[in-house]
């Protein structure tokens, strides 16, 4: 009887263990299935896309840059001394040759007087030697020496004259005093900054043009120019410089000279509108993609292309930027599908889910 009860307990225990194992196994299978579903969803990154398309765009293109003075100069002191007078202030217009400041010249004038006295003595001595040489009283060597002394004395006077003139600091360009570094009583040394003068009667708009557009530009070509702070004003500029060599970004620096109507200021933000056609209404269909498709900006020339549900990091060659679109010169097949949103989570070769 005792043996029968023991057997019954063993059978019951086995049944309980079997039932528990079945339940655990079933739950694990369900959990594995749910994890697989979630994993498959995570593996597919949701993105927005757009296809390469052809758009009729104006032949004109625009480039941004900054206005700079046509001339700009910092005036350094050419000698040591104390400033006696400052004759101009910041904002004053100055002409070429106008005296801006004077440096104390008492000691220099004394040196000048001494040099002039030495010159008079040299003239008298030379005249005496010249007369004596005619009668045979002195040798040719003595006459040559007196002539050399006279020449050196004249050079010394000229040198002192330069020093005297340098005490009057004069403008070498016309323009406006943008910055004054000195005051009466200031002590300056050679090379010390005294004034900054800028000529803004004309301005230079400096821009960079990519290689696909630079071939259409020429020196002397007229360009429409606008300023961001003057939306109602339009200026006409002329191309004065095209760099013969591209910079590190494969763009070519271009300078456009613009006449100033006293509204423009150096340092303002400007836009040059270039026309590559005699008829500004001419348009042509260009292959383009949205600018937002580029990874880390248009300059990266990198986009994600979706092929068979997989992202593919692709290098392209971009052209002009027109509004929200960028011309594609090469690198994409016709009707290629590029990612326009969701790139931040993408790497090359990932599965994607396109949401229109």
From TrEMBL:
Domain annotation CusB-like beta-barrel: ranges: 205-276
Keywords: Coiled coil, Membrane, Transmembrane, Transmembrane helix
Pfam families xrefs: Beta-barrel_RND_2, BSH_RND, YknX_C
Domain Multidrug resistance protein MdtA-like barrel-sandwich hybrid: 77-198
Coiled coil: 105-132
Residues in YknX-like C-terminal permuted SH3-like domain copies: 288-354
SUPFAM superfamilies (alphabetical): HlyD-like secretion proteins
Regions that span the bilayer: 6-24
Family assignment from sequence similarity: Belongs to the membrane fusion protein (MFP) (TC 8.A.1) family.
Protein name as annotated: Efflux RND transporter periplasmic adaptor subunit
């Amino acid at each position: 009887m005792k043996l029968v009860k023991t057997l019954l307990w063993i059978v019951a225990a086995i049944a309980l263990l079997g039932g528990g194992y079945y339940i655990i196994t079933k739950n694990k299978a369900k959990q594995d299935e749910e994890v697989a579903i979630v994993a498959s969803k995570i593996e597919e990154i949701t993105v927005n896309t757009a296809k390469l398309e052809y758009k009729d765009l104006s032949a004109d293109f625009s480039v941004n840059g900054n206005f700079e003075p046509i001339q700009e100069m910092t005036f350094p002191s050419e000698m040591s001394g104390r400033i006696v007078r400052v004759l101009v202030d910041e904002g004053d217009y100055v002409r070429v040759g106008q005296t801006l400041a004077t440096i104390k010249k008492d000691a220099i004038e004394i040196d000048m007087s001494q040099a002039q006295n030495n010159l008079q003595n040299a003239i008298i001595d030379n005249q005496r030697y010249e007369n004596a040489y005619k009668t045979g009283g002195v040798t040719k060597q003595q006459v040559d020496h007196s002539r050399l002394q006279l020449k050196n004395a004249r050079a010394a006077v000229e040198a002192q004259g330069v020093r005297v003139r340098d005490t009057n600091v004069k403008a070498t360009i016309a323009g406006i005093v943008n910055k004054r570094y000195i005051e009466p009583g200031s002590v300056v040394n050679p090379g010390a900054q005294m004034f900054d003068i800028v000529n803004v009667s004309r301005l230079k708009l400096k821009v960079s043009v990519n290689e696909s557009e630079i071939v259409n530009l020429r020196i002397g070509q007229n360009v429409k120019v606008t300023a961001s702070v003057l939306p109602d004003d339009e200026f006409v500029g002329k191309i004065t410089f095209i760099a013969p060599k591209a910079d590190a970004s494969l763009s070519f620096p271009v300078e456009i000279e613009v006449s100033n109507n006293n509204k423009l200021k150096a340092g303002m933000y400007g836009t040059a509108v270039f026309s590559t056609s005699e008829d500004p209404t001419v348009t042509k269909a260009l292959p383009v993609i949205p600018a937002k498709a580029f990874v880390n900006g248009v300059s990266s020339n990198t986009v994600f292309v979706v092929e068979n549900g997989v992202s593919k990091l692709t290098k392209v060659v971009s052209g002009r930027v027109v509004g929200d679109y960028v011309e594609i010169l090469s690198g994409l097949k016709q009707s290629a599908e590029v990612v326009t949103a969701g790139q931040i989570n993408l790497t090359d070769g990932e599965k994607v889910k396109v949401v229109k």
